[in-house]
Amino acid sequence: MMMLLGITSICCIAIAVVAFLAISFILLLQIFIYMTTGVCKSQKKMNGKTVIITGCTSGIGKETAFDLANRGARLIMACRNVAAAKNLKDQFVKETGNNNIIVKKLDLSSLKSVREFAEQINREENRLDVLIHNAGTAETFKKKTTDDGLEMTMATNQYGPFLLTHLLIDLMKQSAPSRIVVVASELYRLASLNLDNLNPTTTLPAYLYYVSKYANIVFTMELARRLKGTGVTANCLHPGLIDSGIWRNVPAPLSWGLQIIVKGFFKTPKQGAQTTIHLAVSDELDNVTGKYYLDCREYGLSQSIKNHTNAKKFWELSENIVQLKSTDPKI
Ligand SMILES: NC(=O)c1ccc[n+]([C@@H]2O[C@H](COP(=O)([O-])OP(=O)(O)OC[C@H]3O[C@@H](n4cnc5c(N)ncnc54)[C@H](OP(=O)(O)O)[C@@H]3O)[C@@H](O)[C@H]2O)c1
């Protein structure tokens, strides 16, 4: 009996020690994340500037949109879920006192929706100072194809933004100096771009998320090269690993373990929005183009992603994929 009590006590102490160490580790890591995370220090007001941000109903986009509304920008919330965006808009107006916020329907997975959105913007807006390509989707196993026959992740994360950039570029050139900001990801390092199969409808979507982020960076670098001298800059970023909606399509039981990691170790959406905000507003980026940022600082890219010949080829092939017309602006 005494021996059993002794073993039980030792087990209890061991569990308490392990729990203490685990909690301490998480707390220390949280402090580390808090200390090292980039913060946009710019106090710049955005009154008189028009900003479009895609996919701002949740996560990083929502926090970025709030910040820009708070700085006085005319904010165009380009969202797929219009009802959710309208509710959020009312909240932003109430909290920031900025009445210059509008919601427009945009489904980046549909070439038709991208064209309709751009057509409205070109008709109704007289300037566009900042275009933020924030919207993104990630699937794990479910393969999906859009109405245009494109693979869903690539269509939403890369081809929709590619077409949108073309259709809005004249307005941005007229408004120069203006900025294009692309939310990419460090996860690009796990992928590469197969130029012989740019519509990979049979590939695992989880991998295609990395590919789409690789494509975002190649696109931004080539865009910056093509826009040299126009007054329109293009930069991209990794926001960090964020506790946002992007993980929602991970199925159980994978999601159980993931949720512990996401809640315990990842940045908040507000922290995750800082680098996007920095690229959108900071004066120090006035003449910066073709760069990649992390934690509000310029960050190095892998050698392979900087291949200019591949980027040029990717661009030309993408023009066919999004069915760019001879009457559309060329970049
Ligand atoms: N979270 C991370 O750790 C992380 C890391 C690196 C990069 N990123 C990037 O950060 C960006 C923002 O993602 P998040 O983490 O904030 O995720 P999120 O909370 O899921 O937000 C994604 C946003 O994109 C919108 N969206 C999805 N599909 C769309 C479509 N077809 N058309 C228009 N909008 C669409 C969503 O709108 P609905 O409400 O309609 O779904 C939502 O507002 C993404 O580009 C993502 O790849 C995230």
TrEMBL record:
Alphabetized UniProt keyword annotations: Membrane, Oxidoreductase, Transmembrane, Transmembrane helix
InterPro entries: NAD(P)-bd_dom_sf (IPR036291), SDR_fam (IPR002347)
Molecular-function GO terms, alphabetical: oxidoreductase activity
Domain of life according to the entry: Eukaryota
Keyword Membrane: yes
Transmembrane residue ranges: 6-35
Protein name: Retinol dehydrogenase 14
Organism: Aphidius gifuensis
Lineage, highest ranks first: Eukaryota, Metazoa, Ecdysozoa, Arthropoda, Hexapoda
